[in-house]
């Protein structure tokens, strides 16, 4: 079982859009996938029309295997299950910071479904916290959507610095460009500069800015389910391919 996180310390960059579409894309190729939503806003579950379990509180997530597995829901798609988030997940950090070995707790919780899934995708909330440190430790790969603008570049650098300071394995970090607008000179220039600065940390994949992705909220489904010919689907499939090659 491999664990892939969609993470950025910045909000609104496409973590959830990526999690949802990659989860669907990997399941399409026959992998058994669990999409685990760690963001209390619960957007991933919303996109898959899955209601959250109120019984899975922040403490039980990490300590009660039965409650954890009972909270997993099927989706409308073959090979794809969802663990929807609920508002209690906003207290993950408070709970984890009180626990011994807090950074290995997430790995332990996910190990309870080892054997049932080939890939677990983690849709992460946007911060650097005890929870994100657990994610960094647990994930085999960390997909980081980067909008090619100055602020996002800075956020990506901050993440790399954090990994360097904590002696975390940078090779887990796989950046890619998100919401790319071909007409914007700044996007092209920033992307080129970032690729040159971090050739090993940034995949040669760009998810375009696409109205079809925004429409996921209306259809409540991954893009491939209602607009299979969208360039966004090709980009997400390329991301799935890159991931499969690395894991
Ligand atoms: N490639 C894209 N093109 C157009 N809109 C996008 C794209 N990716 C995400 N969005 C939209 O931007 C908003 C934030 O995306 P989301 O995936 O929820 O970000 P995050 O999870 O990082 O906060 C959502 O409304 C989503 O529909
Ligand atoms: Mg999100």
TrEMBL record:
InterPro entries: AAA_dom, DNA_Partitioning_ATPase, P-loop_NTPase. It comes from the Bacteria. Residues 1-164 form the AAA domain. It holds the Pfam family AAA_31. Coiled coil: none annotated. This is ParA family protein.
């Amino acid at each position: 079982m491999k664990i892939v996180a969609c993470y950025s310390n910045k909000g609104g960059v496409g973590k959830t859009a990526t999690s949802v579409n990659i989860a669907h894309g990997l399941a399409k190729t026959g992998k058994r996938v669990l999409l685990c939503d760690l963001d209390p806003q619960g957007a991933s579950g919303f996109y898959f029309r899955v209601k959250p379990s109120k019984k899975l509180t922040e403490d039980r997530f990490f300590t009660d295997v039965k409650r954890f597995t009972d909270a997993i829901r099927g989706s409308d798609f073959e090979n794809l299950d969802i663990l929807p988030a609920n508002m209690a997940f906003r207290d993950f950090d408070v709970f984890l910071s009180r626990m011994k070995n807090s950074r290995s707790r997430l790995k332990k919780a996910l190990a309870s479904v080892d054997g049932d899934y080939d890939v677990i995708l983690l849709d992460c909330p946007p911060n650097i916290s005890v929870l994100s440190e657990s994610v960094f430790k647990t994930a085999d790969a960390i997909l980081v959507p980067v909008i090619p603008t100055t602020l996002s570049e800075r956020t990506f650098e901050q993440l790399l610095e954090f990994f360097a300071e904590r002696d975390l394995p940078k090779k887990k970090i796989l950046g890619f460009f998100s919401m790319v607008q071909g007409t914007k000179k700044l996007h092209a220039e920033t992307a080129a500069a970032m690729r040159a600065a971090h050739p090993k940390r940034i995949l040669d994949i760009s998810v375009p800015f696409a109205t079809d992705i925004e429409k996921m909220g209306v259809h409540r489904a991954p893009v491939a389910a209602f607009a299979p010919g969208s360039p966004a689907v090709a980009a997400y499939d390329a991301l799935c391919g890159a991931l499969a090659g690395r894991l």
